[in-house]
Amino acid sequence: MFDYATLEALAAVIDTGSFDAAAARLGVTPPAISQRIKALEERMGAVLVIRAQPCRATEDGARLITHQREVALLEAQLAPADMPPVLRIAVSADSLATWVLPALSALDGVLFDLVIDDQDHAHHWLARGEVVGAITADPGPVMGCDTVALGRMRYIATASPAFIARHFANGVNCAALQAAPALQFNAKDRLQEDWAAMICGRPVSLRAHRIGSSEGFVDAALHGLGWGMNPEPLVRAHLASGALVALGPAPLDVPLHWQSLRRLKTPLGPLSAAVRKAAKAVLL
Amino acid sequence: MFDYATLEALAAVIDTGSFDAAAARLGVTPPAISQRIKALEERMGAVLVIRAQPCRATEDGARLITHQREVALLEAQLAPADMPPVLRIAVSADSLATWVLPALSALDGVLFDLVIDDQDHAHHWLARGEVVGAITADPGPVMGCDTVALGRMRYIATASPAFIARHFANGVNCAALQAAPALQFNAKDRLQEDWAAMICGRPVSLRAHRIGSSEGFVDAALHGLGWGMNPEPLVRAHLASGALVALGPAPLDVPLHWQSLRRLKTPLGPLSAAVRKAAKAVLL
């Protein structure tokens, strides 16, 4: 079996970013950390740490850290740990901005490492074995995972009144949609083009500002930079006050799911329950 | 010289993520896009596009796109463009959450592509030639760039009253800081450890939740997940209402700078002026 002190040293180097900081965290000398990493790399026959500022894990290194975290999580069921176990989970930015944190704060004695990605891609992190659970639009299930439907997140096409007066004076039609600047979360975000295609009845290519922040998206709409599909819970107050206006009657609903590793079902139980409960309060 | 229609095809493939969508955007057939990319790859003697879902640029491809965008920006000074030029700039998440968007909304006829990174690392994007400007803690200047001081962003160590009652009942001392869960933006974020080191008078290793969102950071503090260094403009109202409490009298001030490519000084002039003005309204 592995020497888990060695795996802990590896996790500490990646977590803190340097051999010195890892040594300080574990209360040993930097040469001791260096030796452990070297021994582990020799045993695995692979480089595990990219020595840079900060240190990063290679793919092999990341796999070992994931394994160490899983074992720590299982161990925490048996005996109190001196270091709380780390739960790495993938969440969509819009879920984080609207309902995930209350769920996480219901748990105690664990640390969360949130990987923030587009809801259409969060499950890839799970498939690659880099997280123990994911909030994702993909119903899956990813192999070895359980999946639970959480409800639908409603997206509303929104813009500021000044933006609408300028770009949609003749209504929200196809020509206007192609000319007006849109917002896009990142290269993978297709929500705006999906909605525009629904309005036009054919695929549409938009020109868009790219802003990878849920709140930044709403702020950009408020400041008149562009129109975008915003999660209803994030714009409810702005729609009520008139600071933002819905571009059309048709919302887009995205069903969300909680997928988590079946082999960690017991230790992940409280988290799964908290996620379901918090989602129920906000999603449709 | 380059055939710029070819470079435009490359930019469209990366921007839209697929050959089909790029063809739709440029009003040509997918085989025409495919041919242009192939011709460009043959001329450069390098793969420029990683054919995946979505398509991604190789390093060589990204360099060409940056060049194409620069030329488009310079061209826009001479004649109206059918496609607005794209300004790719690196911003720190905390700046985006507090003062950057009003600056961007003051400009017209350009699209922004925001690269969001830690303020201590935003300038690396500039040094690698991937952005035309960066809001960064690094005074630089990066080679070939002009730098302007924008003012200081004030960070305050904050937590919820319930969190303080539980973890800092005997005051904010070194032992309590090492035991209480902290928040960390990402592996590169050292603000919490810098502040803790200031309190303890020696380097401190913290255990932290990792949450890469400025607003998520504030929300996590409000929900009692951990304590963290939050930008003063984002927590001012919470400190006034008592929903969050400052952990100690000592804030941390981070001076911010605007660095931008000197060779694009003229076309970037209006953006540089807007950034300076918006920063002045919020930073110290």
UniProtKB/TrEMBL annotation, chains A, B:
PROSITE patterns, per database record: HTH_LYSR
Keywords: DNA-binding, Transcription, Transcription regulation
Key word Glycosyltransferase present: no
InterPro entries found in the cross-reference section: ArgP, LTTR, LysR_HTH_N, LysR_subst-bd, WH-like_DNA-bd_sf, WH_DNA-bd_sf
PANTHER family according to UniProt: HTH-TYPE TRANSCRIPTIONAL REGULATOR ARGP (PTHR30579:SF2), TRANSCRIPTIONAL REGULATOR (PTHR30579)
Family of the protein in this entry: Belongs to the LysR transcriptional regulatory family.
Name recorded for this polypeptide: HTH lysR-type domain-containing protein
